[in-house]
Amino acid sequence: MKKITIYSVLASALFFTSCSNDYLDTNPESTINEEQLATSPQALQGLVDGIYTGFRTFGNTNSAIHEDFGHRGMLAGTDLMSNDVTMAKSSWFINWYNYQGRLQTNGRSLFPWNTYYLQIKTTNTIINGVNKAGITKDNKYVLGQAYALRALSYFMLARFYGPTYVGHTSDLCVPIYTYVGFEGKARSTVGEVYNMIENDLLKSIELLDGYSRPTREKIDKSVANAFLAQVSLEMGKYPQAAQAANAARQGYSLGNEDAWSNGFYDLTLTTDAMWGAVINTSNTSFVASFHGMFDNTNTSGYAGGLGIYKNIDKRLYDKISATDYRKKAFVSPVTGDPTYPELPPYANVKFKDPTVSDADYIYLRASEMYYIEAEALARSGNEAQAKVVLAEIQKARDVAYTTSTNTGAALLDEINTQKRIELWGEGIAWFDMKRLGQALERNYPGTNHPTFGQLNIPANSSKFVWQIPQAEIDTNPNIVQNPN
Asked: RagB/SusD domain spans which residues (predicted)?
């Protein structure tokens, strides 16, 4: 009987076991052996469910830092590294906002590393076990989920710790682990990492064909297609990105103003939500959560209670059409907000949690797919169809919108701007800045970024790449550090 031991990145204390009781119940570091695992659909699904739990668990780094609440925390942090989000006071997430968190000696540099490698170890166990035993009708859907989760985890790691794909395929990215081992590996190239990500997603899409998931907490074919769309856009594979984005968004409703404006707190009420996590009284981390940090209206959270408001950048607010109902998601600098008179200009009222502490995490929305498809079509030379796709979502948000007459760079800028407006606070802006080679420019005339956040960083700076955490440097002799 061969006992499974999970170890993906040496003894750098990457994998702690104090996440939550339901995660521990599905931790592969148990007495279950490979033969039992591969032949038990229940055990396999238990492991996958443990991964989903890990994605929304507080304290993956065993720290008491209230930014460390899983995948949604990583998305929130990166938005605070962009041009588009301001924070009113220096508090949690300040190390993201001022770019100190990316440094190897800052504990935040470990957050993405732990969050995703922690889940990769489990996906590898599932993938290797099933492939060894043989794919059957009883395990193919679990395998498909595992491939998608591994791909997403490596994609996130690559975007944090590596450069962009286009023009950098030979540069160093992150180590690839596809099996259990005790040797810390060297960093693979960007090309190698993305090749594995893409292959995993293509396998996932094939395996998940016909899968009907019980809840949106689990990944199905549409979500795997959405991941492929994001990855293909990063890789410059524009026809594939457009095709995958179109496939991903089928069957989801864009909703109306009431649906869009309900606070993004409920995975089932948000009509275009594709994937997320259900938070309730048994698994909430309360203030150490996304709405705790971003809901300016909740006086029980950090944002609303302590005045650590998360606001929209003035320039982006000014670009929202007056007839676009998404503008109401931010406090007008002219009229204020009569419902929340205490909030300052530009404060967001997009995220609201009427439950106070049990708001769900929404990781992915179908609305993003429209902008990916439109950009990919435009970059593929099909601007006419790009405008059709862009108009489909814009007309759902702005009654006065007319199909764009822009072309070339102006059309791409329009698509990107509307994407930033639609997905403000949802973890897209900084990754797109990095992909598109855009500078951080917060110190400008009339800026509403506070003094401690008025940074200007040129496009393509090394500061858009996170350093490898000190814990990994100390324990893995094969690792090479990124520039400061």
From this structure: 348-484
Rounded-to-integer distance, Cα 151 and Cα 154, Å: 5
- For the chain, how are helix, strand and coil distributed in percent, rounded to 5? 45, 5, 50
Q: What is the pTM of this model?
A: 0.93
Phi, psi (rounded to 5 degrees) for 220? -120, -170
Write the CA distances from 228 to 149, 202, 223, 426, integer angstroms. 12, 8, 9, 18
The two counts, helices (H) then strands (E), for the chain are 19, 6
Query: Tens of pLDDT along 230-265?
Result: 999 999 999 999 999 999 999 999 999 999 999 999
SS3 at position 13? coil
- Count CA within 13 A, CB hemisphere, residue 87: 26
The amino acid at residue 280 is N
Distances, alpha carbon 57 to alpha carbons 24, 76, 297, 329, 437, in Å? 11, 15, 24, 28, 32
- pLDDT one-digit tens code per residue, 7-17: 233 233 233 32
CA atoms lying within 13 Å on the CB side of residue 282: 5
Distance, CA of 178 to CA of 124 (rounded, Å): 6
**Cα–Cα distance, 208 to 222 (Å, whole number):** 9
Angstrom distance (rounded) from CA 138 to CA 81: 43
Predicted pLDDT at 32: 52
In the chain, which stretches have pLDDT less than 50? 1-31
Q: Does domain 1-211+453-484 have CATH number 1.25.40.390?
A: yes
pLDDT of residue 29: 44
Q: Are the CB atoms for 173 and 480 separated by under 8 Å?
A: no
Burial class of residue 205 in the structure, from the number of CB atoms within 10 Å of its CB (0-12 exposed, 13-18 middle, 19+ buried): buried
Pairwise CA distance, residues 6 & 121, whole Å: 6
Residue with tokens 């970024």: 449
Domain boundaries defined on the chain? 1-211+453-484
SS (H, E, C) 370-416: HHHHHHHHHHCCCHHHHHHHHHHHHHHHECCCCCCCCCHHHHHHHHH
